[in-house]
Amino acid sequence: MRSYQDVLIRPVVSEKSMALLAENKYTFLVNPAANKVEIKHAVEKAFGVKVVDVWTMNIKGKTKRVGRTVGKTPDKKKAIVKLAEGHKIELFEGV
């Protein structure tokens, strides 16, 4: 099993993810090879909270052009975790 530093890349701070905070749901970019069980253990170990549910989604990279050269941004994986009642992640507070 991977360590939590290898699973969690960074939190996602956007309007949609901030709206989910009211429902006690937090959004993270995660390692594309990580599964839901690894994500759950990583969040619990990193922040000392109890995770109730995990949703994951794969995000395809976009096609980008610079002049005649066509490239693609890398694919990503996003996870939304729901915490148990009474648990919070202080990292998101005040953002």
From TrEMBL:
One of its GO terms (biological process) is translation. Keywords: Ribonucleoprotein, Ribosomal protein, RNA-binding, rRNA-binding. One of its GO terms (molecular function) is structural constituent of ribosome. GO terms for cellular component: ribonucleoprotein complex; ribosome. The keyword rRNA-binding applies. PROSITE patterns: RIBOSOMAL_L23. Pfam families: Ribosomal_L23. InterPro entries: Nucleotide-bd_a/b_plait_sf, Ribosomal_uL23-like, Ribosomal_uL23/eL15/eS24_sf, Ribosomal_uL23_CS. One of the early assembly proteins it binds 23S rRNA. One of the proteins that surrounds the polypeptide exit tunnel on the outside of the ribosome. Forms the main docking site for trigger factor binding to the ribosome. Part of the 50S ribosomal subunit. Contacts protein L29, and trigger factor when it is bound to the ribosome. NCBIfam families: PRK05738.1-3 (NF004359), PRK05738.2-4 (NF004363), PRK05738.2-5 (NF004364), PRK05738.3-2 (NF004366). Belongs to the universal ribosomal protein uL23 family. This is Large ribosomal subunit protein uL23. The gene is rplW.
